[in-house]
Design brief:
It is a single chain. By secondary structure, this protein is of the alpha/beta class. 37% of the residues lie in helices and 16% in strands. The chain has ten helices and ten strands. Strand 5, helix 5 and strand 6 form a beta-alpha-beta unit. It starts with 13 loop residues before the first strand and ends in a 6-residue tail after the last helix.
């Protein structure tokens, strides 16, 4: 089956996708492989990574794939993963993330699990991939509609969280997005770029079946079909992210999402991000906080 997306031939390009063994990350990897890219699947679970590889190859027999073991909730795992990448990277899709966690949950390094994984983990990974990023590399931060309801407050990122889990998720995604916009500012004057994208409201029941991945009953799919005018499958949710990573009309500082009602579904389109995540002051403060939390210097 050919991809319906209008994307260039990606032969010769190497792209790493974190969290590529399931959900949006998996679909980014399959779409990229279908268009000829060499895809590195950054995954915490080796077993689930191999399931994803088998699933992609069932759809794209000649897919050029490799697995990079990485736990974004462990700074030592991140350092090992970054050191293992010995080839030029044309793009990095920062997708892996924790969507729900107990308030007391922590990363291996004692950071809040959501902030530490979704934001700090990606900051640390990119800081250590600098030597293998192509001169014109793109970084795509996978954001969320929830970022609009979040207050980043960089100085308090390492403090215990007492609010609702959903708000902390939005905060972690807002921080990742603010970092991407700040990275793009710091890369100004170079050919490298950083931008953001979000999948809209993407659900498993409207997603094509893939062996070994999320399985939904026939009744569940039939019920979900009633909501199709408002939501979409995760294959469609991956489209704005892939577009941001490789399309010719996507440029640094962009934010891409579905172009339909409320940005829940639809074809990729430039959308608006909150003033907070685009703030120069927030970005600069967040950068300093992240370097301290990750115990790494991000050299531009």
């Amino acid at each position: 089956m050919a991809s319906p997306l209008a994307l260039p031939d990606l032969a010769g390009r190497t792209i790493i996708v974190t969290g590529a063994n399931a959900g949006i990350g998996y679909w980014c990897a399959e779409i990229l492989a279908r268009h000829g890219a060499r895809v590195l699947l950054g995954c915490r679970s080796a077993e689930r990574a191999q399931v994803a590889v088998s699933s992609i190859r069932a759809q794209v027999p000649d897919a050029d794939l490799d697995v990079v073991p990485v736990d974004l909730g462990s700074l030592s795992s991140i350092a090992t993963a970054a050191a293992s990448v010995g080839e030029r990277l044309d793009a990095v899709i920062c997708n892996a993330g924790v969507k729900a966690a107990d308030r007391s949950a922590r990363t291996a390094d004692g950071l809040d699990l959501m902030v530490g994984t979704n934001f700090i983990g990606h900051f640390a990974l990119l800081a250590q991939l600098g030597d293998v990023l192509a001169d014109d590399a793109r970084v795509v931060a996978v954001g969320s509609l929830a970022h609009r309801f979040a207050e980043i407050a960089p100085a308090t990122l390492s403090q215990p969280w007492t609010g609702p889990s959903l708000r902390q998720y939005g905060r972690s995604k807002a921080a990742l997005m603010a970092f991407a916009f700040e990275l793009n500012r710091r890369w100004r004057g170079t050919a490298r770029s950083a931008l953001c994208a979000h999948p809209g409201y993407a659900v498993d029941p409207l997603t094509p079946h893939r062996d070994g991945l999320a399985d939904v009953s026939g009744a569940g799919r039939a019920l979900a079909a009633l909501s199709r005018p408002l939501v979409q499958g995760k294959d469609a949710g991956a489209a704005p992210i892939v577009h941001a990573a490789v399309a010719a009309d996507a440029t640094g500082g962009d934010y891409w999402g579905p172009g339909g009602l409320l940005e829940f579904r639809g074809a990729p389109k430039r959308v608006s991000a909150s003033e907070q995540v685009r703030s120069v002051d927030v970005g600069a403060e967040l950068w300093a906080v992240a370097e301290h939390a990750a115990d790494v210097r991000f050299r531009i």
